């Protein structure tokens, strides 16, 4: 089935060298999507896909157009002249800081803005690179670690829970206590509170037993 799909894609593409100024439009025919060139007044990628969308946030120096397509509930990536990824992904996220999360079966990894698979899907979970660091989850102990854009682990897999960045800080849970990480994955507030809330306008509410405190992000201890 997938072999015939790839053949169909290449037949549809015909290795055309079109650029972004060709007025390319994603449109549908018989409930399938393709790419229509208003300049050439024809489909340059035939409407054979269930979903199709241009990919934003990739290498600005690359003038080619790249598209995310869905076929039989799986996603792949094509350009106007070749197949980049066959339809093997359950998920392809948006690009943040030149990286996107991909999911293959039940495992997560990353592709970069040049559409290279820079991290093979091996993690139970992987988060977007909103800054220069992100977080991945291990299958072995179900805990999270911090990772940099070169796919190097900055911390070990020791965090029970990791939340999203808020005001440049991430709240985490470790050994049933809560603390904060900064954008460098440094523990600027150790895991010592019973619960913490996100920083909002530079202030975070924290709970320590029956006591409630308010931390200021410019005076963390």
From TrEMBL:
<dbReference type="Pfam" id="PF14903">
    <property type="entry name" value="WG_beta_rep"/>
</dbReference>
<dbReference type="InterPro" id="IPR032774">
    <property type="entry name" value="WG_beta_rep"/>
</dbReference>
<protein>
    <recommendedName>
        <fullName>WG repeat-containing protein</fullName>
    </recommendedName>
</protein>
């Amino acid at each position: 089935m997938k072999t015939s799909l790839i053949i169909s894609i290449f037949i549809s593409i015909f290795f055309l060298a079109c650029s972004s100024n060709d007025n390319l439009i994603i449109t549908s025919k018989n409930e399938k999507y393709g790419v229509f060139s208003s300049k050439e007044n024809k489909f340059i990628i035939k409407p054979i896909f269930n979903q199709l969308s241009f990919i934003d946030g990739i290498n600005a120096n690359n003038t080619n157009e790249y598209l995310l397509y869905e076929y039989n509930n799986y996603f792949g990536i094509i350009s106007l002249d070749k197949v980049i990824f066959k339809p093997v992904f359950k998920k392809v996220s948006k690009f943040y800081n030149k990286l996107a999360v991909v999911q293959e079966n039940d495992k997560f990894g990353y592709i970069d803005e040049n559409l290279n698979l820079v991290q093979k899907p091996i993690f139970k979970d992987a988060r977007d690179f909103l800054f220069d660091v992100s977080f991945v989850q291990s299958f072995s102990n179900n805990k999270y670690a911090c990772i940099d854009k070169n796919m190097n682990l900055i911390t070990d897999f020791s965090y029970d829970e990791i939340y999203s960045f808020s005001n440049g800080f991430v709240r985490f849970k470790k050994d049933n206590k809560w603390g904060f990480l900064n954008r460098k994955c440094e523990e600027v507030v150790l895991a010592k509170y019973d619960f913490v809330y996100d920083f909002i306008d530079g202030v975070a509410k924290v709970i320590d037993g029956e006591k409630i405190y308010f931390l200021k992000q410019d005076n963390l201890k």
